[in-house]
Write a structure and sequence with these properties.
single chain, mainly alpha, Growth Hormone, Chain: A, about 70% helix, disordered N terminus, disordered C terminus, transmembrane transporter activity, MFS general substrate transporter, UNC-93-like_regulator, MFS
């Protein structure tokens, strides 16, 4: 009788089994990304809270600045000094915008954002002093403009990076609209303050000193609110994914990376569009200061904020809709926004040329003849400005490929925008006719369309938004099955 002998593996102790499993687990963790956690985010670390904090900073700093700016010339009686000061602001912003990623790398996102809010109140104080001395003391306006330019470059680049990198990818459009709503809310609240304190000023001139006092108090809160923002690694998204900002280890290498990104094809093609997006801001403010009474400018500050908020929200929800593909959303939004903008530029050329040939004896007041047509132009230009701004940031997110790029892209956007605004405010500080300035804006608008379309027609085929397109396609396929 023969016995069959089978060779068995030696038995492992429970401790050896545990060690082996731990080793396998460690290898799998090293080779594969960890699965995202689906636990409910803590309210303070949620992306909604971060967008709210960022929005509050936008309200307290550039939002209040925009409220003054929407009055025309910062609320001053003459636009020349303020346009020159703003030109200085945006020249300085070019340099600090491109250095933002380096400062974030050296400190942190909240600290950089806080530093970025510090100069706005100094600029408002300069306008206060200029108004109090009837325009005879303007040195603080220029000092404030310099402080604002140095800090604002850091602020605008950081807030752009945060709003493009912190939210879940399928909520980007809504969060960009939500963020811009707070900025426009600054203009809205500022408009209410302006109108309440300047209701009886049915003539040209500067806004009241009390208006500047309220603005300065609000802007002083900005640095403290900014420090409550969470660092990227502490943000908790609903889908469990992490916010990652892979910045370089030194200032030199970071600046080199920004320069390399600036030369990338998609970025280079969008530069004319980025430049043109904010180029009209000084024209709109100069137009208001030149042709409207103080209380009409205050009304414009209020109503333009309401219209811009509604326009931004409508565009944001459309850019996030699942019923239309990412590619079609981008192309249709671009066609709609820029077709409207083209019509408004043609309208502005007609109106401003007519005003140049037949200058009104008195500034337009809401009780005067011809107010509605000229006021409508102001509202249209403000709406177009805000919708172009939102669309630009959505497209920048579309060409982003990783966490480190988004900070650099935001810095490039703010730097290029600042260069355009510096030139624009410089032009409006001279004796250029407003219809000629409108013609220049229309020319820049026309030049940006073709290169921007080369990028936009491919949106959703690469970059961060490509992931959205892929996910939506998979969901549609599962639904059909």
């Amino acid at each position: 009788m023969s016995e069959s002998v089978t060779q068995q593996a030696p038995l492992e102790s429970p401790l050896e089994k545990k060690d082996a499993l731990n080793e396998v687990d460690a290898q799998s963790v090293a080779s594969e990304p960890a699965a995202p956690s689906q636990s409910k985010p803590h309210w303070y670390r949620s992306t909604f809270t971060q967008a709210t904090i960022l929005g509050m900073c936008s309200f307290l700093a550039p939002g209040v600045w925009a409220a003054m700016n929407s009055l025309g010339a910062g609320g001053q009686s003459s636009p020349a000094t303020v346009n020159a000061a703003n030109a200085l602001t945006f020249v300085l912003m070019i340099f600090t915008s491109w250095a933002t990623s380096s400062l974030i790398n050296l400190t942190s996102v909240p600290i950089t954002l806080s530093i970025g809010t510090t100069g706005f109140a100094v600029y408002a104080a300069g306008l206060y002093l200029s108004t109090k001395t009837a325009g005879t003391t303007t040195w603080l306006v220029l000092v404030g403009a310099a402080c604002c330019g140095i800090s604002a470059g850091f602020f605008w680049s950081t807030e752009g990076a945060v709003i493009l990198s912190y939210p879940e990818k399928d909520r980007l459009g809504r969060y960009v609209s939500y963020w811009l709503m707070f900025r426009v809310l600054g203009q809205l609240v500022g408009g209410v303050i302006n109108l309440a304190l300047n209701y009886s000023a049915a003539q040209a001139g500067s806004i009241s000193l009390e208006t500047y006092g309220v603005f300065i108090a609000l802007q002083c809160l900005g640095p403290f609110v900014a420090l409550t923002l969470s660092r990227p690694e502490k943000v908790q998204r609903k889908d469990g994914t992490k916010v990652v900002l892979n910045l370089e280890g030194s200032v030199k290498s970071e600046l080199k990376a920004v320069g390399k990104l600036l030369c990338r094809r998609e970025v280079a093609l969008l530069l004319p569009m980025i430049w043109q997006t904010t180029f009209s801001e000084s024209l709109v403010g100069t137009y208001a200061a030149t042709y409207f009474t103080v209380r009409s400018r205050a009304l414009g500050s209020l109503l333009s904020a309401v219209v811009a908020s509604l326009g931004n929200y409508a565009l944001g929800f459309y850019l996030d809709t699942k019923r239309v593909s990412v590619n079609k959303r981008g192309k249709s939004a671009f066609i709609f926004v820029y077709a409207c903008q083209g019509g408004w530029w043609i309208f502005s050329l007609i109106v401003l040329n007519r005003l140049h040939r037949n200058k009104p004896a008195e500034p337009f007041d809401w009780a005067s003849s011809g107010f509605s047509t000229h006021f409508a132009l102001y509202i249209m230009l403000q709406l177009g400005f805000n919708q172009m701004y939102e669309l630009t940031y959505w497209l920048v997110s579309a060409i982003n490929k990783d966490g480190s790029e988004i900070v650099r892209l935001a810095s490039i956007v703010r730097g290029v925008e600042s260069a355009g605004q510096a030139l624009s405010y410089g032009i409006n500080a001279t004796s250029w006719r407003l219809d000629a300035v409108a013609g220049l804006n229309f020319g820049l608008y026309s030049l940006c369309l073709a290169p921007a379309w080369v990028v936009i027609r491919k949106v959703g085929e690469g970059g961060r938004l490509a992931a959205i397109a892929s996910e939506e396609g998979n969901k549609d396929g599962d639904a059909k099955e």
